[in-house]
Amino acid sequence: MFQMYFTSIELVLSALSMNHWPIYRGPREVWRKTGDDCESGRREVFAQDPDGCLLMIAENLVGDRS
Questions:
Q1: What is the pTM of this model?
Q2: In angstroms, rounded to a whole number, what is the distance separating the alpha carbons of residues 52 and 34?
Q3: Which domains does the chain have, with CATH numbers?
Q4: CA dist 60 to 21, 25, 44, 46, 57, Å?
Q5: Are 3 and 21 in contact (CB under 8 A)?
Q6: pLDDT tens string 11-45
């Protein structure tokens, strides 16, 4: 799996759609615990390239969730 982070994944999602790349999962919002009472989030989508490699394309969400 190869991970790529962007400021926004909207343009990447458009390019994937225009090129008919299969979406494996997402886009989805994921929050993970980063402290005793805090979570950090990201928006992510998983796609497969033509060779079958899994790509995670993500953007960090601004702020934390308590």
A1: 0.79
A2: 32
A3: 2-65 (3.10.180.10)
A4: 23, 17, 9, 15, 10
A5: no
A6: 999 999 998 888 999 999 999 988 788 888 999 99
Residue 40 C-alpha from the chain's centroid: 14
In DSSP notation, 8-64 reads -SHHHHHHHHHTTPPEEEEEEEEEEE-SSS-EEEEEEEEEE-TTS-EEEEEEEEEEE
Q: Which of 49, 43, 58, 42 lies closest to 16, judged by CA?
A: 49
Task: Give the type of residue at 49.
Answer: D
Q: Are 59 and 3 in contact (CB under 8 A)?
A: no
Tokens of 27: 């886009």
